[in-house]
Design a protein that fits this description.
The protein has 380 residues and is an alpha+beta fold. It has nine helices and 14 strands. The chain folds into three domains: 141 residues, Elongation Factor Tu (Ef-tu), domain 3 (Beta Barrel), CATH 2.40.30; 52 residues, OB fold (Dihydrolipoamide Acetyltransferase, E2P) (Beta Barrel), CATH 2.40.50; 107 residues.
């Protein structure tokens, strides 16, 4: 072993420097890693200059057709007897959607009809009696008129006193007055019967209008607000509709401080609560209008149709209302464009809550770095 170490020492001393051997600085794998890192750095520098980062305003919203949903209300007070539609049903103008019980009005109408029957019997009796009396009176009048003519001749010849003639004429006038009174009585009965018939027709029309609740427009039922057996008053909502001919759009509510940054024409990203964003992406839309002032609680309830939800969204501060249209796309099941894939395999319905964001500004990444660099270098 000692001889071995001595031989290596002698060999090293005989060739202290191997000048003809190349020194290996790095391995090929290292060069590949270094080149990859350089490409990444170059890409980051280029992207920081030419790329952009969107600044978004976030908000909560709801998908609806038209500016707001439509209400069908009751015109009278009553108890709900029947509701003929369900959510999702399509209804036509004039279609009966519900019926109410109107016990008081129905009883009043029944009493009026009973009284009409009694009056018609009385009118018939009065008419029969009146015609009989008129016939008797007319016979007496014919006789009295002949008597007047005869007595006038006798008075002219001095064979009869004028007082007797006057008494005959007074009797004739009284009978003529009786005929007029009898005819007026018969006519009065007819007038009263006709008047009551008119009242009954009016009551029947009022009963039909208050019992049958009809839709004043076409639409699709979103929600049935009342239930069978509920007592409702005039103007009470029975159900809500969405118009069939209006496109689906989004009403978004954003904080008032951020809302002033939103302008018509800006891009909107809408994520319906019923759709998985990571699987189908989000709906693409465009801002159409922005409210000048924060919405009131009444305005929020008018759109949401949910008092509790309106209170939640008003809790922090009154928001700004942003109305956005969705970009149509006939290739998707929903009929609107999605950020990825073709969207979900189902329809998107009105009343669906959604999260939304509006891209209000785009900045290059380097614009975020330069201020920090200047501060670190003390450059103003």
């Amino acid at each position: 072993m000692a001889d071995l170490f001595r031989k290596k020492a002698i060999d090293k001393l005989s060739s202290p420097e191997q000048l003809d051997t190349m020194m290996q600085v790095t391995s090929p794998g290292g060069w590949i890693a270094l080149a990859g890192l350089g490409v990444i750095l170059l890409f980051a520098v280029v992207w920081s200059v030419v790329g952009s980062i969107g600044i978004r305003v976030e908000g909560q919203g709801i998908l609806i057709r038209g500016a707001e949903v439509l209400d069908i209300t009751s015109a009278a007070q009553g108890r709900v007897k029947e509701v003929r539609v369900r959510p999702g049903d399509r209804i036509k103008t004039g279609q009966i959607v519900a019926r109410l019980e109107q016990t008081e009005l129905e009883m009043r109408l029944a009493n009026m009809k009973e009284r009409l029957g009694q009056m018609e019997v009385q009118k018939t009796e009065v008419g029969t009696t009146g015609r009989s009396l008129v016939a008797q009176y007319e016979s007496q009048i014919a006789e009295l008129r002949q008597r007047v003519v005869t007595q006038e001749n006798l008075v002219a010849r001095g064979l009869l006193t004028r007082a007797t003639l006057l008494r005959t004429k007074q009797e004739l006038a009284q009978i003529e007055q009786s005929i007029s009174s009898t005819r007026q009585m018969t006519s009065g009965e007819q007038i009263r019967v006709d008047d009551l018939r008119g009242q009954i027709q009016e009551a029947e029309a009022r009963l039909a209008a208050s019992v049958e609740v009809k839709s004043p427009f076409d639409g699709r039922v979103l929600e049935v607000v009342t239930a069978v057996g509920s007592l409702i008053g005039p103007g009470s909502r029975i159900l809500t509709l969405e118009p069939l001919d209006a496109p689906l759009q989004t009403v978004v509510y954003v904080p008032a401080v951020e809302g002033k940054k939103v302008r018509p024409g800006m891009q909107v990203r809408v994520s319906p609560s019923t759709v998985k964003v990571e699987e189908y992406g989000f709906l693409v839309g465009t801002v159409q209008s922005v409210s000048e002032f924060p919405v009131t609680p009444e305005g929020l309830r008018r759109v949401l149709r949910n008092d509790r939800l309106a209170e939640q969204w008003m809790a922090a501060s009154p928001p700004i209302e942003v109305v956005a249209s969705l970009t149509p796309d006939a290739a998707t099941k929903s009929g609107y464009r999605w950020s990825s894939s073709k969207g979900p395999p189902t329809q998107i319905l009105s009343g669906t809550l959604a999260a939304a964001s509006v891209v209000v500004e785009r900045k290059s990444p380097i614009s975020y770095v330069l201020p920090a660099v200047k501060r670190s270098l003390g450059v103003s």
